[in-house]
């Protein structure tokens, strides 16, 4: 099934909700239309254009966000995003999947704002069964505030691929067979949010939001999900008939190139943070274990 922006529900996200995983339960879907009252109850998240485009705003009182009406187990989620322009330091625009409740799973793309002319950072992370700490961060090879670009999460039982304009920038393989947690059991909802992250986001929290520049506005369009909604009749493990292709030779090359050129942080190389030993899957002797043949270069 494919879903569009009309599968999303605009709603106020207060900042404290963002800091926890206890996001509120979403409202029931009302057909395919966005409910009118959202335009008045939350002016910060506005869906226009028959559900094809959306803006999120943050002012000094609140950020904003939307969440999907459905939860999904596996799928590919594409969104075109144009980030907060000019001085966006301290703002975080997030596009992510998350399950509810304890031991949650989460797949994150977060854009860390910056001063005018300084580069955004695209930060990716994975929480599996409540464990995060898998950050990889990148500079982008274009100005993400000038135009819309497509950001995608492709989540299937074998692997998660993060893509920018259809170019894979990160692949996380399922290595449950060697004991590394991976999200395969809990359905997740999709969220996009704009919020205040100035305690950590820009130059490790040194640069704060300049509220005289508010409101901050990020734009979204053409959300598309080709995803499985679990139900008694829907076995999502066989979603896409199980034909989830990994990278081919060409895209593997591209991935390597992106990593070499644009990666600015890799948790697997953070020897200070993991002074007592890198996470299991990062250690040289383990980082190929549990991979299927097609994953080898
Ligand atoms: C912001 O700009 C500074 C200076 O160029 C850079 O070091 C930093 O990585 C940039 N991004 C963020 C999110 O801090």
UniProtKB/TrEMBL annotation:
GO aspect biological process, one term: cell wall organization
Domain GH16, chain residue ranges per copy: 15-220
Protein's cellular compartments: Secreted, Cell wall; Secreted, Extracellular space, Apoplast
GO cellular component, as recorded: apoplast
Active site: 106 (nucleophile), 110 (proton donor)
Single Gene Ontology MF annotation: hydrolase activity, hydrolyzing O-glycosyl compounds
Entry keyword set: Apoplast, Cell wall, Cell wall biogenesis/degradation, Disulfide bond, Glycoprotein, Glycosidase, Hydrolase, Secreted, Signal, Transferase
Enzyme class, spelled out: transferase
UniProt entry tagged with the keyword Magnesium: no
Enzyme Commission (EC) number: 2.4.1.207
Listed InterPro entries: Beta-glucanase-like, Beta-glucanase/XTH, Beta_glucanase, ConA-like_dom_sf, GH16_AS, XET_C, XTH
Residues modified by glycosylation: 114
UniProt-listed Pfam families: Glyco_hydro_16 (PF00722), XET_C (PF06955)
PTM text: Contains at least one intrachain disulfide bond essential for its enzymatic activity.
Family annotation (Gene3D superfamilies): 2.60.120.200
Function: Catalyzes xyloglucan endohydrolysis (XEH) and/or endotransglycosylation (XET). Cleaves and religates xyloglucan polymers, an essential constituent of the primary cell wall, and thereby participates in cell wall construction of growing tissues.
Family designation: Belongs to the glycosyl hydrolase 16 family.
Protein name: Xyloglucan endotransglucosylase/hydrolase
Provenance organism: Pisum sativum
Organism ancestry: Eukaryota, Viridiplantae, Streptophyta, Embryophyta, Tracheophyta
């Amino acid at each position: 099934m494919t879903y569009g922006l009309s599968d999303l529900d605009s709603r106020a996200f207060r900042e404290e909700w963002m800091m926890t995983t206890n996001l509120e339960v979403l409202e029931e879907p009302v057909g395919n239309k966005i409910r009118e009252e959202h335009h008045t109850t939350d002016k910060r998240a506005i869906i226009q254009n028959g559900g094809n485009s959306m803006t999120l705003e943050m002012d000094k009182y609140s950020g904003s966000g939307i969440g999907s009406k459905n939860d999904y187990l596996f799928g590919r989620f594409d969104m075109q995003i144009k980030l907060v322009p000019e001085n966006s330091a301290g703002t975080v625009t997030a596009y992510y999947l998350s399950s509810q409740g304890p031991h949650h799973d989460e797949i994150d793309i977060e854009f860390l704002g910056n001063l005018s002319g300084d580069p955004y950072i695209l930060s990716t992370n994975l929480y599996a069964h409540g464990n995060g700490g898998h950050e990889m961060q990148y500079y982008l090879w274009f100005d993400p505030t000038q135009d819309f670009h497509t950001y995608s999460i492709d989540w299937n039982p074998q692997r998660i691929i993060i893509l920018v304009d259809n170019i894979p920038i990160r692949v996380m393989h399922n290595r449950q067979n060697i004991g590394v947690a991976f999200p395969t059991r809990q359905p997740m909802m999709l969220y996009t949010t704009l919020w205040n992250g100035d305690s950590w986001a820009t130059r490790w929290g040194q640069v704060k939001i300049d509220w005289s520049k508010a409101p901050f506005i990020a734009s979204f369009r053409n959300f598309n999900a080709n995803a499985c909604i679990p139900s008694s009749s829907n076995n999502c493990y066989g979603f896409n008939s199980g034909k989830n292709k990994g990278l081919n030779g060409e895209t593997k090359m591209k991935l390597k190139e992106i990593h070499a050129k644009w990666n600015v942080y890799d948790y697997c190389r953070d020897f200070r943070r993991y002074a007592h030993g890198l996470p299991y899957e990062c250690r040289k002797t383990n980082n190929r274990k549990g991979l299927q043949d097609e994953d080898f270069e």
